[in-house]
Each structure stands twice: as C-alpha cells, then as structure tokens.
Amino acid sequence: MVMSKKRLKERILLELKEQGFKVNPHLRPKRNAKDTYKKIHQKKRLEKLKQHKNTLLRDINLVKKYSIDPESFDPKKIELEIREVKPNSEESKIFFWWNLMWWSLPYDKSIGRQMKFIIWDKYHDAPFGLIGLQSPPLRNAVRDKYLNLNKKNIDFWINQSLYGQRIGALPPYNSLLGGKMVTLALTCNEIRTRYKQKYDEKKTLLSNRKIPSELLFITTTSAFGRSPIYERIKYPDKEKMNDVTFFIGFTSGAGTFHLSEDTYQELLKFVESKGINVKRGYGTGPSRKLKLISKAFELLGIPSFSYHNIKRGFYFIPHVSNIHDIISRGKKPRFFNRPFNKLSEYWKNRWCIPRSERTEEWKKQDIDKFFNQSLKLLSSI
Question: Cβ neighbours of residue 87 under 8 Å, at least 6 residues apart?
C-alpha cells in the first residue's frame, strides 16, 4: 500500500527533526558541532548494526582474539604489512566487524569497483587500520573543478581512480596518529599494483569500453569538515618533500544517509505509483539513490531536502606527480615510488615513536571496555 502524500511528508519531517535537523524551511543541523553530526548519523548507524546484528555477535570473539594486550604493547616494536582482504577470510570478518562497530559514520555497501585492505601489525598480531576503496561518484563539483574535467572526458579519468569509503586506524594505534599511516598507505605501490592486476582489460559497465587500468589518484571525504588525519602529511620522494594529500574544498551537502531504509522504501513506492521507473543497482547510472530521493521530494513539495547541508571536507590523494599535465596535456604519468614498508618506517619515526614519548594516551585506551559496550549495544537493538 502506498502511503499518502500528506502522511509521507509528515513522516519525513518528524524523522529529520528527531535526528537533530532544523527544518525552517530548509534542512540544516541544529548546531555545527561534531556531537550534533554524530547524533544525526546515529539512527542510520543503529539501523545498519541491527541489520547485521547476528554476524557482529557471531564474530565478536574472533575480533577480540586479535585485540591488543595493553601489558605487552610496545609502539617501538610495531611492524606493519598491508593485506588485501579476500572474501570469506578471517580478515574479511575482522574488517567487517570493525567497519561497522568502530566508526560513528554508518557503513554503506560498496559499489562498482572495490578493493579492501587491512593494515596488520605483525609483531603484536593485531589489526592496525582499514582501507575500503570503491568506484567514485561520476560527478563531483569540487573534484571536477580541481581537475578541470568536462562531460566528454570525465568517465575516462574518473575510472582511473578510487574513492576511500573507509579509512582509519583502530585502537590503540589511533592514539599514536595511526590515521596518518593509513593515509600514507593510500599512496603505496602495492595498492596501485593490485589495482592494475585486478582491473586490467576490464570494460566499464555503463559505456562498455576499456580504460587504462592505472590508478592515478584516490579521493575521500571527511565526515566532520577538515580532518587532522589527512592534514599536513608530506613524504620524501627522492629527497624532495611532497604533499601526500590536498584539501580541495567542501562537498555541497547532498546525500541520502539522513533517511532511514524504511522511509526510503516508502519513497520508492510513492515514486513508482507516479509511473516512474525505480530500477536500482550498479549499471543504472551514477547516484541513482540520490536521484530517486530527489524526485520523490520534488513530488512531495520539499525539493531542497535532498541536501542535508553537512558539508564534508574533500581530499585528493595523487599516485602521480603530474596529474594536471596528464589530463590537460596528455603527458605520461610520473608515478610516485612508495613501497609500503618505506611508508611504514617513515610514519613510525616521524609520528608514532615521538607521539608515544610525548603522551601516554595510548596506554589509557580500554579495549575490553569497548568490546563490552559493543556487546551491550548489539544485545539491545
């Protein structure tokens, strides 16, 4: 049964207000503060946790098995490696659990081309951080302006990039500026090599054409504006210090996370009742979900509500030193040579050890308490 226009509109307004949005007449957070943003994301996050509750409860003991023992943890002995996450492996279960439980930003299923990596501390036999990569949106105003892309060439260049959906360090490494290491790892040779192996000779689904299987750059966004884990990171390439990341602006504040899955399904029924095709899935075009929601809001008379107005910081992470010349002048890529072990060594000496000597914050993280809180949360939903 299709919900009436009036009832559906009332439901959306109530849901948004409960999350912490102001509706007068446009949508915006009540306050520009991190706590407010977290509250707004909370409903969607709990929805995802409930959806995967049984899996998360099943694997909690596996994850605890590889947690850090505070008594034996020594930052100076951290020894990192990068592992690609294979389906149905132990790493995939560990990745999935931390991906959902550790971050306040809700998990979304990856789309298109996707690669997942887990950075592992071999000495302590524990997961250090996660890297979740997927196909980027075909159009993004901030990125496209920075690269001077247009309708004719956008799919060619964007299909030689990935978007970082989940990037970050796990406890206690996050207290040792481990996020800087995960960001550095985004530029490592190993990810680029694996990308080339995986997508060599593949055709794009929408235009059915072959595109070079080179990974030229990665982009990502920060949930709460500019993020310290992406800022002020340089690396010595051939004795020259190069910026690893570039902050290139803020997103427009459009998205879909502010609507629950139940409300989204009601919107689809409503749109379909108006004779509009609601086919979804990869291959139906970029940002399909957002377009369907925008159409529904237009029909409901609330077109601006597809903008949640939480503007995310947008970061550009190149794998080449001459990205603008490649795109505008057809130059050959000059790839950085950044082996993961060299990046790891650099991070350890530049950030990890100095941080561990300046503060004992990393000693105070109670991981057992976090697991107990996670178990309590999962049992309550």
Answer: none
Question: Residue 257: which residues within 8 A CB-CB, separation 6 or more?
Answer: 41, 44, 106, 108, 308
| DSSP bridge pairs for 218 | 162, 317
- pLDDT tens-digit profile of 318-341? 999 999 999 999 999 999 999 999
Task: Among 34-48, 54-68, 134-148, 229-243, name the one with the lowest average pLDDT.
Answer: 34-48
pLDDT digits (tens, 9 = 90+) for 180-228: 999 999 999 999 999 999 998 766 655 566 778 999 999 999 877 788 8
**Residue type at 378?**
L
Distance of CA 222 to the CA centre of its chain: 8
Stated as kind and residue range, the H or E segment containing 180 is: helix 178-185
Q: Is the link from the previous residue into 70 a cis peptide, with omega within 30 of 0?
A: no
User: 314 burial class (0-12, 13-18, 19+ CB within 10 angstroms)?
Assistant: buried
Residue 327 sits in which domain range?
31-253+309-380
Give me 189's structure tokens.
Answer: 């040779």
Domain assignment present for residue 12? The answer is: no
User: Based on the structure, what is the number of domains in the chain?
Assistant: 1
Confidence class of residue 160 from pLDDT cuts 50, 70 and 90? very high
In a domain, 273, yes or no: no
Question: What is d(CA 216, CA 62) in angstroms, rounded to the nearest whole number?
Answer: 36
What is the reported pLDDT for 306?
66
Task: Say which residue the tokens 């899935």 belong to.
Answer: 281
Average pLDDT over residues 372-378: 95
Is 270 a domain residue? no
* Rounded Cα gap, residues 121 and 72, in angstroms: 13
Cα distance between residue 204 and residue 209, in whole Å: 5
Q: Is residue 126 part of a domain?
A: yes
Helix and strand tally (H, E) in the chain? Answer: 14, 11
Q: Which of 115, 54, 49 lies closest to 83, judged by CA?
A: 115
SS3 of residue 254 by DSSP: strand
Strand pairing category for 80-84 and 313-318: unpaired
Q: How many CB atoms lie within 10 A of CB 266?
A: 20
